[in-house]
Design goal:
Elements: H1 6-13, H2 18-23, H3 29-35, H4 38-50, E1 54-61, E2 64-69, E3 78-79, E4 92-97, E5 100-104, E6 116-120, E7 125-128, E8 140-144, E9 154-159, E10 165-170, H5 179-182, E11 185-189, E12 200-206, E13 209-214, E14 217-218, E15 221-222, E16 225-230, E17 235-240, E18 251-255, E19 258-264, E20 269-275, E21 284-291, E22 298-307, E23 310-317, E24 325-331, E25 336-343, E26 352-356, H6 366-381
Antiparallel strand pairs: 1-2, 1-26, 2-3, 4-5, 5-6, 6-7, 8-9, 9-10, 10-11, 12-13, 13-16, 14-15, 16-17, 18-19, 19-20, 20-21, 22-23, 23-24, 24-25
Length: 382
């Protein structure tokens, strides 16, 4: 029988899909230990990050929320719906980091029925987070500490509705090593007014910052702010957007590795700005000025970049008789909208586009994950 060197086996395994590697836990105890080691999980993730990520799109069709894989040039989405049933049918796609997806449900009639989930589709793991001390709000933030050395140092923020404080959930295997602190919520004192939670929309993750573009209407004034949460220092900061970013409705995403804010200058013109140096107001630069099609009024919202000179927009019909919405792609070279897929009009409140990579990062508490891996290995060995 031919025996390959461990280095060769490792190079082969690291190139395999995560779903295949999960099955290999049962080969032997040594394989199980190697495949679940931090070194192998990190090496596999690093390779996934070097490859092109998948674009996941949250949308609604037939009255139900769905997740699909965005593929330019196709007139349909490849379904990527959760492999488990959330507590209520409607869910929001909060974000994705290191192959872990965060979903939230919000039941306005019964706050205790609202939940937050962590889900890794690649290894078929999910976990409902414990209920925080206050009801789950509509303003959820999700990110990861990229400098802790722990791939699962996950942070989830639930901003309260009535109190000037937030809550943070630390990863079940956070860098602190404290299981009580690592698998629980804690209050974070913040200067954010309580009513901010009603005006924080879609989030983006930029390095160690969870960011929102907020429009808190105080004393009948409308001021647009970039609100960010530093997952390392656990503090919120606010930054006013420059006056020359003057459009009335703004959306946030990341373009070319920078925070981007975009919106309508008019029904015919759409502006896209980026902050070239994070935290430096003077670095805001207009990146694109897009001329919109000349037909019945439509509201456009930039969801993000699909790469290779392609932007993805959510498009909502404003005519009272149409009540339709679409996902459309815009080609920066031809300056044309090339693809429009019809959706439910209700998609306007929750459509988002996030990057996703396959990974072996576990979302389960450390003890639970180790027991699960051990059971898989013992099935064959025993």
């Amino acid at each position: 029988m031919v025996h390959f060197p461990e280095e060769i086996i490792g190079e082969i395994l690291i190139r395999l899909p995560a779903k295949s590697l999960v099955r290999f836990h049962c080969v032997s105890k040594s394989w199980n230990a190697n495949l679940t080691s931090q070194l192998f999980v990190k090496s596999h993730l690093d390779r996934s990050l070097r490859c092109r990520s998948i674009k996941l799109l949250r949308y609604e069709r037939g009255g139900f929320p769905r997740i699909g894989i965005w593929s330019g040039g196709s007139d349909e989405f490849c379904r990527f719906d959760p492999q488990f049933q959330p507590s209520i049918g409607n869910f929001q796609l909060v974000g994705s980091c290191n192959g872990v997806i965060c979903l939230s449900t919000l039941s306005r009639g019964n706050c205790s029925a609202s939940d937050i989930y962590l889900w890794n589709p690649s290894i078929n793991e999910f976990m409902a987070l414990p209920q925080p001390g206050c009801p789950v709000s509509a303003a959820i933030g999700f990110g990861i500490n990229p400098y802790s050395g722990h791939l699962d140092d996950i942070k989830v923020i639930s901003i309260r509705n009535r109190y000037s404080c937030g809550s943070e959930f630390r990863s079940p295997r956070s860098s602190s090593g404290d299981s009580l602190r690592g698998n629980s919520w804690k209050q974070i004192e913040t200067a954010l007014p309580s009513w901010y939670s009603y005006y924080l929309g879609r989030q983006v993750m930029y390095k160690e910052f969870i960011c929102w573009c907020a429009n808190p209407r105080e004393d009948h004034r409308s001021t647009w702010l970039l609100v960010s949460f530093d997952v390392i220092n656990e503090v919120f900061t606010e930054m006013m957007l420059p006056e020359n970013i003057a459009f009335s409705e703004k959306s946030i995403t990341t373009i070319e590795g920078c925070i981007s804010v975009s919106g309508h200058e008019s029904y015919r013109i759409y502006e896209v700005w980026i902050m070239k140096e994070f935290g430096i107001p003077k670095s805001w630069t207009q990146l694109y000025l897009i001329k919109l099609p000349e037909y019945s009024p439509m509201h456009y919202e930039l969801l993000g970049s699909a790469g290779a000179g392609e932007l993805v927009f959510f498009i909502l019909g404003l005519h009272s008789q149409t009540n339709l919405s679409y996902i459309g792609s815009y080609d920066l070279e031809s300056k044309q909208f090339n693809q429009c897929i019809e959706l439910d009009a209700s998609s306007a409140s929750g459509s988002c586009l996030v990057d996703y990579v396959t990974s072996l990062v576990s979302v389960l508490p450390k003890y639970t994950a180790e027991c699960s891996h051990s059971v898989r290995a013992n099935k064959l060995i025993g």
